[in-house]
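Page 42, continued from yesterday. The earlier attempt failed because a stray header line got pasted into the input along with the sequence. Redoing it now with the clean sequence only.
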Amino acid sequence: MTKAIHLSTTEKASWVSGTAPELLPASSADTPDLRVTAEETISWQGFGGCFNELGSRALKHLSPKDRTRVLDDLFSPDGELRFEFCRTPIGANDYSEDWYSLAEVADDFELQHFSIERDRRHLLPFIKEALRRQPELTLFASPWSPPTWLKRPAVFNFGKLILKPRYLEAYARYFLKYVRAYAEAGVTVQQIHVQNEPVSSQKFPSCVITGEEFALFIGKYLGPLFEREKCSAEIWLGTINGPETDERKSWSSVNDYAFSVMEDVEAGKYVKGISYQWAGKYAVWRTRLGYPELPLIQSENECGDGQNTWSYAWYVADLLHHYLAQDVCAYVYWNMILEPKGISTWGWKQNSLYTADPVTGTLTVNPEYYIMRHYSAFIRRGDRRLVCQRPWATNAVAFKSITAPDATTVVVRNPFTRERTVTVETPDKKMWRVKLPAQSINTLRLPV
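This time it went through. Structure tokens are written below.
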């Protein structure tokens, strides 16, 4: 039988075995601060991160021992983070060493010059190390920019896809060739998310696409091609980064992408799920209400400023709670490992789970690593989210374990500046009392 476990992290102490939860007598008249009900929602698909070139480079700075430690912790079922659901770019993103696509010869409509040779040197070795440890890893891929000759203007950083049939047909084949080339290289890409952050024109590789343009491309070109060629990769709408505020006045602006594509007769039938990141977090709950049967994921954790502070890690915990409470079925961190300050190709400093110093080879474990661990260490693929009630539900999520059916996993934060004693009721009506350190994140494993 599962033992009651309490693990806690504060700014000063990480992953500490806290005071064990106390089972209260059946006669206890305590009113729970947090009630975990028996009501189940989504089936969890996994936590993960993104495979990026600068991450691959950072990993090589480490000694063989530390490199193995990082890879084992990230991906091994016996590791500490146990990632199961990860992302990779199609062509360049803002954490590539420079900008490129997989078919950059102009007007090559037959894609005769398509090649993943660069990925064989950088991304594929990283991905294969993950697959060696976690063969059941789900991998989804998205472009930050199409090949430049498919855009107007013909540049990586900003611009729009040319909406002429010959260009759209070539771009659809670009995705098909990518999935097949990766399969031939021994890596299965299970999902294609059509465009990274389509709302924004950026300094780094990007492409603005409207909801109607998504519907056109998916419904008339990408979907039919994948169906005709029996491509096993699913088509997802994403990764969406809008609207950029949480104003709740206009349903039309919030639902621009989900509604435009899912209600399109030709496109909607091909879309297997929707992914949201950054400003898209404000649209998740409305999409969930409109399409309760559709899988939703959080596709990129917000990036930070390269300082890897505890205060930002606490913000990441808030993001995790927001998305999980909206019933996403996966949560994907951004850069798993970077050099100090995490400077991107275009100059932005961002956070990472680990830092690898290129001069000394020193490995540093950053605060967001522990935040992710509080969720990913025990919440496994197939677990079911349980509905929480009572006041502390605003700081808690809970899951019914499939691998350990006699356990409930509860992740609960104490946002207060002093220790708080909280009473938790599990679905079997047992009552547990536990002390939560001041300003802490806590993982509870409670027998049921």
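Notes: The chain has a mean pLDDT of 94.
Reminder to self: strip header lines before submitting.
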